[in-house]
Amino acid sequence: MQKKVIYSAIILIILLVYTALGSRLLANTSPRPLRKSELLALVAGGVLPENVIAQINSQGLGFRPDNSFRSLLEVAGANSGVLHALDSAKKADAPPDDQSDRELSEHLSKAGSLIKAKQYPEAASELTETLRVTFASAESGFVMGQVLTKQERWQEAQAIYVDMLRKDPNFPEAHTKLSFILYRVDDPEAALREANTAPEETPNNPEAYKNKGLAFERLRNFDAAASAFQRAIQLKPDYVNVRFDLGILLFDKGDIDGSIAEYKKAIALNPDEPSAHYNLGLAYAQKNDLRWCRTLGSLGVAREEVAQKNR
To answer: Which class is domain 240-311?
Structure first.
């Protein structure tokens, strides 16, 4: 109980300090190169690698990345595609980092590593340290939004992203993140507005199309939802979550064969996902196909594999 109270206090501190920034964060209406801290926040904050690369390519870098920065980015969760994008990006010279810049980068990188390890209270504590070294906490707020999202603390995540965008409407990928949160708090109209805003930053944004699909589905516009999901898959063929979401949508529409095809693709991409196995079994059962027994059997295997990994 004491740990939970302390953790809630950490989140409240970040919200209060970020709100207190007020006019310190001014919206920049023209594209500008990414700062080191912004790029680290995108990676630590769970932005799709494809979207991180798109931001690098479209905005360029306001610095010249050295090996030390590459290491921080990798610790935060960057894949090889993101690291390779640094090589071809437009770059600008910047003044040397001061102590607060270096500490902010280190804390963001560490927070990203802790999120990957599912150590969410520790990640939140790491982010409070960024408030000690710098008042420019937009990056910290973005990453904290991911911490709260991972814990399904939707209202708190919504408060973080809304406040960020009120003060810095152009913070990269924040509209995309907020659109998903608004879907989760059952506000599909607002989710759709944010999802439609996100492609203005990165036109080929698979996560934004995923969120549009979820919002359309909640609004019972199933054809529009299917089109959005299919566009997300076209942009990112290995998008497991969207394959799964499309499978559910097709099942609900009565397209059982289409649903089975999507669940199979999801399982091929992630064999350890129990829900895909289970839903595939239900789809086979709907067709009175006895193969569903084998499917549900493989579900048990998948669950055991997941349990082994989490021990």
So the answer is: mainly alpha
